[in-house]
Structure to design on (398 residues):
């Protein structure tokens, strides 16, 4: 006979305490909803190409049956259908509620010193040529939008401290979805960690309430207040950016309508900011119809959104495979958590990097639509790199 479902533990920690307690190999997720830190391995979720929500649900049920007091699946899933997955039920989960009062000050770690070697995949002008190829495909018909990415691989003289990097990312943008997940693969010379500060919520579920917050249409942030006001106004008025955003928001709302009895989507986007970018943003909410549909089921149904892939998805995937020279792996995939009740939160794995010993490998992408300017897309990726480059004190290499 099944044992009764345990009462979910209340958060007992401060967000800063969990940030300070993070060590490589742990899983860390911080958002406006709260902070989760997970350690150890109770059960590994089986891999495969099917819906990860089904595998996670079965693994969580087995863990609860085995007496786990707080089973949660945590981890990351790569961009492509055949990309790697790193999902597990940790042995220990600690939580912190959203910060409502000032936290004790957290020490800001010094960024790593010394010189870095930098490798572009591809070089900026080769990336611009790829944008031109994508525009030719769009002009030919059958493809409305494709998100093209490029990578930077930076190598330091010394091993990179992931806890210090994560702390700097959190303190630079406390409102971001900060994450760190172990994605070590066979053959890696040292542990590999996916770490970043994403601005984009793919989907969250709490009870029957579902929230998604797609972003599309961007401008770099300036250090000048008047220039920022001008860029925000330009972004709001841009027919190209608003059309690109509508592609994403309409697709997200359409997917949620398959699972929800009601969906509330705004008539037009708002503008939100990060320390490096301005984005058109739509907060879309829904009321879940079937409680067996978990946050991870929803995330799998939504991914990839046009914000990281394109429209239509099959043609955009083909263009990405043909044009991008670097394997995205976890970039523009998703990272997050889901519990045994189906609640959870998944964010797009953007504004992040894979860190392995002395190497930091980061990606940035831009949406290409009819009317896109190749040099402007290079500039957009350059601005998006700044989130990670600032955190490791590397400037002007993108």
């Amino acid at each position: 006979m099944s044992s009764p479902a345990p009462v979910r533990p209340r958060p007992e920690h401060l967000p800063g305490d969990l940030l300070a307690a993070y060590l490589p190999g742990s899983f860390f997720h911080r958002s406006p909803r709260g902070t989760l830190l997970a350690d150890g391995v109770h059960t590994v979720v089986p891999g495969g190409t099917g819906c990860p929500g089904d595998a996670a649900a079965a693994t969580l049920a087995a863990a609860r049956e085995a007496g786990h007091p707080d089973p949660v699946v945590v981890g990351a899933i790569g961009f492509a259908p055949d990309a790697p997955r790193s999902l597990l039920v940790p042995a220990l989960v600690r939580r912190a509620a959203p910060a409502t009062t000032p936290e004790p000050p957290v020490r800001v770690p010094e960024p790593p010193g010394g010189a870095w070697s930098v490798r572009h995949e591809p070089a900026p002008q080769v990336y611009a040529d790829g944008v031109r190829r994508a525009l030719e495909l769009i002009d030919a018909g059958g493809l409305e939008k494709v998100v093209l990415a490029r990578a930077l691989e930076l190598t330091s003289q010394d091993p990179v401290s992931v806890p210090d990097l994560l702390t700097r990312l959190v303190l630079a943008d406390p409102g971001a979805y900060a994450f760190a997940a172990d994605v070590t693969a066979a053959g890696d010379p040292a542990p590999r960690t996916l770490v970043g500060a994403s601005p984009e919520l793919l989907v969250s579920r709490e009870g029957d309430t579902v929230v998604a917050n797609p972003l599309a249409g961007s401008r770099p942030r300036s250090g000048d207040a008047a220039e920022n006001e001008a860029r925000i106004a330009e972004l709001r008025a841009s027919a190209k950016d608003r059309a690109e955003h509508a592609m994403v928001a309409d697709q997200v709302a359409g997917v949620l309508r398959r699972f929800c009895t009601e969906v509330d989507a705004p008539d037009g986007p708002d503008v939100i900011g990060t320390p490096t970018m301005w984005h058109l943003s739509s907060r879309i909410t829904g009321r879940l119809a079937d409680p067996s549909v978990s946050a991870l089921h929803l995330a799998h149904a939504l991914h990839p959104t046009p914000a990281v892939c394109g429209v239509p998805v099959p043609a955009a995937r083909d263009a990405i495979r043909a044009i991008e020279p670097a394997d995205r792996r976890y970039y523009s995939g998703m990272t997050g958590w889901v519990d045994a009740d189906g609640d959870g939160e998944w964010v797009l794995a953007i504004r992040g990097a894979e860190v392995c010993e002395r190497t930091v490998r980061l990606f940035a992408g831009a949406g290409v639509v009819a009317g896109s300017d190749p040099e402007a897309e290079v500039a957009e990726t350059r601005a998006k790199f700044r989130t990670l480059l600032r955190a490791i004190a590397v400037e002007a290499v993108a």
The mean pLDDT is 93. The first strand starts at residue 27 and ends at 31. The chain is about 30% helix and 30% strand. The longest helix spans residues 239-257.
